[in-house]
Automatic annotation (TrEMBL), chains A, B:
Pfam families: TetR_C_27 (PF17935), TetR_N (PF00440). Residues 17-77 form the HTH tetR-type domain. One of its GO terms (molecular function) is transcription cis-regulatory region binding. This is TetR family transcriptional regulator. Coiled coil: none annotated. Keywords: DNA-binding, Transcription, Transcription regulation. Residues 40-59 bind DNA. It comes from Zobellella endophytica. PANTHER family: HTH-TYPE TRANSCRIPTIONAL REGULATOR BETI (PTHR30055:SF234), HTH-TYPE TRANSCRIPTIONAL REGULATOR RUTR (PTHR30055). The keyword Transcription applies. Gene3D superfamilies: Tetracycline Repressor, domain 2 (1.10.357.10).
Amino acid sequence: MSKANTYPVSARGPMTHDVRDQIVAAATEHFRRYGYEKTTVSDLAKAIGFSKAYIYKFFASKQAIGEMICANCLREIEAEVRAAVDEAERPPEKLRRMFKAIVEASLRLFFQDRNLYEIAAAAATDRWPAARAYEERIQQLLQDILQEGRQTGDFERKTPLDEVTMSIYLVMRPYLNPLLLQHSFDYTDDAPAQLSGLVLRSLSP
Amino acid sequence: MSKANTYPVSARGPMTHDVRDQIVAAATEHFRRYGYEKTTVSDLAKAIGFSKAYIYKFFASKQAIGEMICANCLREIEAEVRAAVDEAERPPEKLRRMFKAIVEASLRLFFQDRNLYEIAAAAATDRWPAARAYEERIQQLLQDILQEGRQTGDFERKTPLDEVTMSIYLVMRPYLNPLLLQHSFDYTDDAPAQLSGLVLRSLSP
């Protein structure tokens, strides 16, 4: 889980950075087992063998730890989506894979583990920065695929790119956002194919 | 569960039917004010001046009353959507209006009144018959518009009608279903136009 190492980490140097990672890794395991909402920083400190004061040296609050876990989780989904997109050659197939990978990776990461879902739901409800940054990166990835498809001649070019990006993002959103996804389990088998079919028809030149 | 009694109406005769309506009307007011979840049939009986036993002669449970209120609420949304569709002449405009009316009517009926939302949410979560029937009628309305658009030559005819209907229904679903709609308030201003634009591009012949 600790892919965190790669994001703009604090300038406190590598030692500090390791401790932060260690806390996040231990907290992930702890929240996974006992839930996020009902665990306090004291519980966490006791469980991982650090003092509460020591944890507070690195994280301002439980939410700050939750944000890091959430950021890791979203990075993991994003990496999976990017890998799926990169496997395809042409933009239409990239779009199909993007849709499929979003649904599969989100279902697995948010729902396999009901306790991680709690963190993802809090992130989406309160619009944590990690959740907003993730949405923006997904929109950017989508826009890159659309741009490429316009260049290859696979997609139409009349509609403004921003408008097309946003409307397709809206079609994907119920499967990206854990709060919506929890009410869409009946549709997750068929929706990726049906919706990417519709989206591709809308893009035909 | 006894939706059967009104749609179609029971064979018990008009008197019985009036009392049922009276109970439903009073219950709607009561739930509106005090909430659905925390009101018991006893509370309700006391408030509307009937005995509990008398209410139970007409409704098997609180949920049976809730189902009737929910059915009325969904019928109201549906009537508004149909009226909006009927105002338009051509199928593409009918689709646009359908989308817009769904969002507006659902927002108003489910959320203006937080206490009615509770009933709608229970209906959607537990898939009450009234909610399922509503989904089917909306799908049918959508299919009728698509069929008409194929006849007028406004819409393409290559893709199987069922597939097109289902994929557009999936695009509309986050705005039809109150559980999803509650997480989409940030998008309800722009989504109808953006999504119907996308859908209409996907339908172009």
